[in-house]
Amino acid sequence: MAFLVIRGKMKRYLKNSILFILAAAVTLLVISVFMAADPVSAIEVKGASVTQTQDNTAVVLKPQAELNAYENAEAALINEYRVASGLNAMAYEPTLTYIAKLRSQDLMDRNYFSHYTPEGTTVFNLFKANGIKYKIGGENLGQAAPAKIGSPEAFLNAWKNSPAHNANMLRNGYNYIGVGMVDNGDRIVVTTVFTN
């Protein structure tokens, strides 16, 4: 019985998968911003945005997380930028923040920097697993080494200077934001996730 439901949705799934792969390929740009005072310092950012539909049949108890001061500052800067660009401010969403923190911690713990985990999953898998219902969603990633150069303003500027990341932050239709930051003293990783 489950196979018949899956088969009926396969056409839409394949179309969305192809759109996701194309969007991910376009947005896997890495932008390095070198600070004049420290030529070995760099901030890297990655952004992904794609329209996806989610099967809303599962009922999942949603985990939640609060924004810390750094994450709140990053969310506020992004919202200020959106409002100045004629768009709505996005509301803080505790499950999206939980997901953003998971992503940043995983990137730090396993020392990689990609929208794909080593197993090939993405933030969209986490959305589904954590009960996030959405039609459009996106993720921007940033990392800085040394960590001291990774201020909220530095990440916002790096994302603004990348066409793909900038478009993701200024996407019409986003209503919710989650931010997760992890800093181990040597490297800082920031994940921002967005949904409608």
Condensed summary:
This protein has 196 residues and is α+β, with helices and mostly antiparallel strands. It is built from six helices and six strands.
Write the layout of secondary structure elements.
Blueprint (H helix, E strand, L loop, with lengths): L1 H26 L5 E3 L2 E14 L17 H16 L6 E2 L1 H16 L13 H7 L6 E10 L6 H9 L2 H7 L6 E8 L4 E8 L1
Parallel strand pairs: 3-5
Antiparallel strand pairs: 1-2, 2-4, 4-6, 5-6
Helix pairs in contact: 2-5
Describe the structure.
By secondary structure, the protein is of the alpha+beta class. Helices cover 41% and strands 23% of the residues. It contains six helices and six strands, in the order H-E-E-H-E-H-H-E-H-H-E-E. The protein has a six-stranded mixed sheet, with helices on both faces. Strand 1 and strand 2 form a beta hairpin. The longest helix has 26 residues. It is globular and about 35 Å long.
| Nearest-integer average pLDDT | 80
Q: What can be said about the biggest beta sheet? A: 6 strands, mixed
Radius of gyration: 17 Å
* H/E series: HEEHEHHEHHEE
Outline: globular
Number of helices: 6
Portion of residues within helices? 40-55%
List keywords for this structure.
6 strands; disordered N terminus; 23% strand; 41% helix; 6 helices
